[in-house]
Amino acid sequence: MSIQEKITSLQHKFDTYNEMGRDYLPDELKKLRNYVFQIHSFYEEALVYLIGIYCFKDTVGLVATENIFKNLDFDQKRRITKKLYSGFPTTAAESLNSLRNKFAHYSGEKLREEFGGEQTIYECMKSLSDYIDKLDIFWLEHGGMTKTKALEHVKLNNKRLRVED
Prior knowledge:
Elements: H1 3-20, H2 27-56, H3 62-69, H4 74-84, H5 90-105, H6 108-115, H7 118-143, H8 147-164
Helix pairs in contact: 2-3, 2-4, 2-5, 2-7, 4-5, 5-7
């Protein structure tokens, strides 16, 4: 059996458990959950970057900043960023974190109740898009880099972290 066949076999096993219990999530909610987690992760990294830029005024101190702040949760990083920068979109960051917490901690049954149906999924996606827009404006004004550059930084940082682990 090839490695791909082994992976497929394990995926079928896991899918069976996903489909059996009351915590089952339909594909559209799985996809939405993934969007929420990915966007939250990006902005959590961006908060550390903003703190580093503020403290060190350049990118040289970012590694030190990452090491200092890596054990803080998103809300702690958000509060620090809010204290350092006026005009920080606190409501957008809090809402993004709240949405992430729902998808991380709610049961599948509760997620289906709250986000079941196309209209509520659309409303959630629209809210997520609005949070991104507000955070992006702030990020571009204060982070000193375009979204493309920021994504390159995140990718390089993730590669560096994997090598160090």
